[in-house]
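A quick aside before the break. I want you to see a complete sequence-to-structure record at least once, exactly as it would be stored in a machine-readable document. Don't worry about memorizing anything.
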Amino acid sequence: MNTVITIGRQFGSAGREIGEKVAEYFNIKCYDKELLSRAAKESGFCQEMLENHDERPTSSFLYNLVMDTYSFGYNASHFVDMPISHKVFLAQFDAIKNLAKEGPCVIVGRCADYALSEMKNCVHVFIYADEETKTKRIMEKYNLDAAKAKDMCVKKDKQRQSYYNYYSPKKWGRADSYDFCINSSILGVDGTVKLLTQYIEDFEAMSR
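That is the input. The structure line, written in tokens, reads:
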């Protein structure tokens, strides 16, 4: 096993659970919230700050102007003036690259596919689901009624979409941004895991 798998996901699609099961199948690590601990450790930022800005787009027009001025990178004078949200993104960006260099793993969310776009031994996946399936899953997970669960799905997906589209040159959830897009509603979690692991095994075989 030599492949790094990145998973973009709609809220309520079970993307994280699927990622964890894929990692378990291949006996490799899965990084979701754990990525924040790693980024905090490597960057020196406190983890709480990373969590507060995790997959959240910057909404300030001034921040956008600042970001248009600078290319990504720790250029000393630029980095000092950079908004916190961008510093947090760069810390996660570097942590993702470092994790991928250490060996095969599954990385969930956080523009990981963009961070690793130049690595050849990667499979970039997007997991989505129909509204009914997502709503039902969120109702059960958070003990919400249907209206609140549906609203939560919409808000979370808008947040993730804004974050991804802001920091990545690609479009969140669009097929040509990924190698493989799967509707987890059709096969369920276990069926999706089975399909995805088969795809990765075939990818590995062709890469040898």
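Two observations worth writing down. The beta strands are 4-9, 29-31, 105-108, 122-128, 180-183. The radius of gyration is 17 Å. We'll return to this after the break.
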